[in-house]
Amino acid sequence: MRVLITGITGFAGSHMAEMLLKHPGVEIFGIYRRRSRLDNLSDLRDKLFMIEPGVADKETIQSAFAPGKINIIDCDLLDPFSVQKLIGSVRPDRIFHLAAQSHVPTSWNSPAATLQDNIMGQLNIFEAVRQAGIDPLIQIAGSSEEYGMVYPDEVPMRESNPLRPLSPYAVSKVAQEMLAYQYHQSYGIKSIVSRGFNHSGPRRGENFVDSSFARQVALIEKGKQEPVISVGDLTSKRDFTDVRDMVRAYWLLLDKCEPGDVYNIGSGNTRPMQEVLDMLLGMSRVKVDVKVDPTRLRPSDVMILWADSSKFMEATGWQPTIPYEQTLRDLLDYWRERV
Ligand code: NDP
After folding, report:
1. Predicted pLDDT of residue 54
2. Of 83, 263, 280, 334, which one's alpha carbon is 20 to 30 angstroms from that of 124?
3. What are the backbone angles phi and psi of residue 75, rounded to the nearest 5°?
4. What SS3 class is residue 317?
């Protein structure tokens, strides 16, 4: 089976590639951009096989491709021509569409770029699939952020909850989901949307809040930062799953769930960000003070994310296996090795 991962240089994409290396019979392809940092793939360096930029016709890709490797090809999803060339040549059986402008705070500063990247990138994939005349299963990475404004009697969140997005990022994810629905209805494109709740672990981008805390603790331990951590609002609650459990869930989503449908994926445990910080401070080897930084506060924040994933669990048998304490410890150790 041939699998294409968009966003392979990102957090979830790199873990997806790592997991698929253990699946016999899976041929792995991924896309990167010329300016992409390949840090998240550095542990897999000896498995990487870069197909030369510009080499994207079907025959050359067939002969250039290396079995047992992660084959990566230069492609910007915003360029419809490159995407058509890529999809038409690779002809994947499964696509994990993980590429996105994925950071909520960035979406406040760059709303147009966020909408453009997330919506047009996906549109280009769908159109390329149609053009190539192939029929792959496609995972679309939706987000719990789509729920946005939630009232106290609406948790834990089910797929039937209203979507009241509170950031440009969340709007882009609702649009991705609507596009998936429309292309499924209109053209039979076999996409399945995961509404993923927060996931974390090693390689989590340093601008995400839990990773920012962990990185600051690691810097302080090494004496590279004053022993003070800057934080934003710590009252909001999030439902965290380990990224390694999440990518396993994405695989099961395509194995067992219904094209055209939407599934929540989350642990079902919600906790205030204050608790996340306290857990990390408890793991710290040094004493750390905490300071509120008003620049880290958002124009409107989602106060609670709490998953009801029973629909997904019943369809697939999936259960998270890695406790959050372990996820945070692995994230902190990741930063200890890097700062
Ligand atoms: P990251 O930000 O770590 O990775 C995003 C990836 O997308 C990068 O590889 C980036 O490439 C790539 N990308 C962005 N735009 C383009 C483009 N135009 N063309 C090609 N590649 C592009 O995100 P995550 O791994 O954390 O998230 C994966 C998906 O899951 C995203 O859709 C995200 O919105 C969604 N999600 C994530 C959650 C989480 O908690 N992590 C929760 C719910 C949903 P480059 O390296 O070049 O920048």
Report:
1. 60
2. 263
3. -160, 130
4. coil
* pTM of structure: 0.96
Residue 55 scores a pLDDT above 60: no
Q: What pLDDT was estimated at residue 97?
A: 98
Closest CA relative to residue 259, chosen from 190, 170, 186, 339: 190
Peptide bond into 156 cis (omega under 30): yes
Pocket of ligand 1 contains residue 203 by CB under 6 Å: no
Per-residue burial over 2-30, b = 16 or more CB atoms within 10 Å of its CB, e = otherwise: bbbbbbbbbbbbbbbbbbbeeeeebbbbb
* Cβ of 249 less than 6 Å from ligand 1: no
What percent of the chain has pLDDT above 70?
A: 97
* CA-based radius of gyration for the chain: 20
Instruction: Give the pLDDT of residue 294.
Output: 79
* pLDDT > 70? residue 53: no
Mutate to test the pocket of ligand 1, among 102, 176, 204 (most ligand atoms within 8 A of CB): 102
Identify the burial level of 125 via C-beta atoms within 10 angstroms of its C-beta, where 0-12 means exposed, 13-18 middle and 19 or more buried. Answer: buried
Helices (H), the chain: 11-20, 58-64, 80-90, 104-109, 111-115, 121-132, 168-187, 209-221, 243-256, 273-283, 310-316, 324-338
Q: What would the mean pLDDT of 182-209 be, rounded to a whole number?
A: 97
How far away, in angstroms, is 206 Cα from ligand 1 center?
Answer: 13
Atom 47 of ligand 1: nearest residue by CA position: 36
User: Residue 118 carries which DSSP code?
Assistant: I
User: Nearest-CA neighbor of 236 among 294, 302, 297, 298?
Assistant: 302
